[in-house]
Write a structure and sequence with these properties.
- The chain is of the alpha/beta class.
- It has two domains: 172 residues, HUPs (Rossmann fold); 172 residues, Argininosuccinate synthetase, chain A, domain 2 (Alpha-Beta Complex).
- It is 38% helix and 20% strand.
- It contains 13 helices and 14 strands.
- It has a five-stranded parallel sheet with strand order 3-2-1-4-5, with helices on both faces. A five-stranded antiparallel sheet has the order 10-9-8-13-14, covered by helices on one side. A four-stranded antiparallel sheet has the order 6-7-12-11, with no helix packed on it.
- The chain is elongated, with a radius of gyration of 24 Å.
- 37% of the residues are buried.
């Protein structure tokens, strides 16, 4: 009786070749697992192709709401940015896929799990740390670290030899390497490997060119509770619908394009282009409501730990004790991060137009430049003398 492997399958060229390779070279029965995290791919076609290629079972798991509620929202409570720019759209998705993959392996008594991440990238680390967090004894097959199919050209040749469906334009030329989910789309490879070359405008899928969007702009109101987005324009929305709606609104206003050179966990630099329309809006809105409801020292502490928190996620350590410790601190800070933020979106820009909260720490009577009877301005003299002691002695 053949042993079983659960493959994180996307339906793209790499994992399609891997599905057949696991059967041919490893002599394993393959359970193809497709995580639906809002990538908008043709999931039915992917499932059909997996069956056609001999997968013993194909499992499509709808993880969209869980992805936003339990992964994206907690991350955004920290205003997380990797190296000051990257909203971690790929990194935050991998732990959920890995966890679900291990659950499937346990259910179907599979000895192995497999993924399509290359030996040069971050995702191999993210997948495998996720696997081991839930099953330290699981056996991992990482084909890119084993096989001799070291290029897209060789993959396509193998696909043709084994009658593997080759998606779209991949029959002729290597495409951009793409990763898509509810939070973002990332693009790497091809012309983007030269950091001086600009991406082709036709590449973008989620966002309109900012210069071609309406110059009238658009107002939206985001309502938060305990740091999470609860309503858009006063309408309550599920986590999944919230991200989907923000992506649509942000996309039509040209919000959320980023062209980055980042430092990979494995030590090399990588150039990537990202579209994160909804996430960009969410970050701006969340920071705005925090500015009203969090005191100065709390804000400063959050800003101080955020880079560490971002690094943990980027490095695949979502399930680590230290990330959970930081999350507890972050979540504690969000108890009164509640209220409404008014944003104006126009041709790729976001402007905060207003914010309000029943937990507001803003005191107009105290901060006014007009006369008041709350604050004695003479008191500032003593404060300044104490703060300046080291300069005056």
């Amino acid at each position: 009786m053949r042993k079983k492997v659960v493959l994180a399958y996307s339906g793209g060229l790499d994992t399609s070749v891997i599905l057949k390779w696991l059967q041919n070279e490893k002599k394993l029965d393959v359970i193809a697992f497709i995580a639906d995290i809002g990538q908008k791919d043709e999931l039915k076609i992917a499932k059909k192709n997996a069956i056609k290629m001999g997968a013993k079972k194909v499992i499509v798991a709808d993880l969209k709401n869980i992805f936003v509620k339990d992964y994206i929202y907690p991350m955004f409570r920290a205003n997380t940015l990797y190296e000051g720019s990257y909203l971690l759209g790929t990194a935050i998705a991998r732990p959920l896929i890995a966890k679900t993959q291990i659950e499937i392996a346990k259910k179907y008594k599979a000895d192995y799990v497999s993924h399509g991440a290359t030996g040069k990238g971050n995702d191999q680390i993210r997948f495998e740390l996720g696997y081991y967090a839930y099953n330290p004894n699981i056996k991992v097959i990482a084909p890119w670290r084993e096989w001799d199919l070291k290029s897209r050209k060789k993959l396509i040749k193998y696909a043709h030899q084994n009658k593997i469906p080759v998606p779209g334009s991949k029959k002729k030329t290597p495409p951009y390497s793409m990763d898509a989910n509810l939070l973002h789309i990332s693009y790497e490879g091809k012309i983007l490997e030269d950091p001086w070359k600009s991406p082709d405008e036709s590449m973008f899928r989620m966002t309109k060119n900012p210069s071609k969007t309406s110059n009238k702009g658009e107002n939206i109101i985001l309502s938060f509770k305990r740091g999470d987005l609860e309503k858009i324009n006063n309408k309550r929305v599920s986590p999944y619908l919230a991200m989907q709606t923000l992506n649509i609104i942000g996309g039509r206003n040209g919000i959320g394009r980023k062209d980055l050179v980042e430092n990979r966990t494995v030590g090399m630099k990588s150039r990537g282009v990202y579209e994160t329309p909804g996430g960009t809006i969410l970050l701006e809105g969340h920071r705005a409501i925090e500015s009203l409801t969090l005191d100065g020292p709390s804000t400063s502490l959050k800003d101080e730990i955020m880079p560490k928190y971002a690094q943990l996620i980027y490095d695949g350590l979502w399930f680590s004790p230290e990330r959970e410790m930081l999350q507890a601190l972050i979540d504690k800070s969000q108890k009164k991060v509640e209220g409404d933020v008014k944003l104006f979106l126009r041709q790729g820009t976001i402007t905060v137009k207003g914010r309000r909260s029943k937990y507001s720490l803003y005191n107009k009577d105290l901060s006014t430049f007009e006369e008041d009877d709350i604050y004695d301005q003479k008191d500032a003299e003593g404060f300044i003398k104490l703060k300046s002691l080291r300069f005056r002695n």
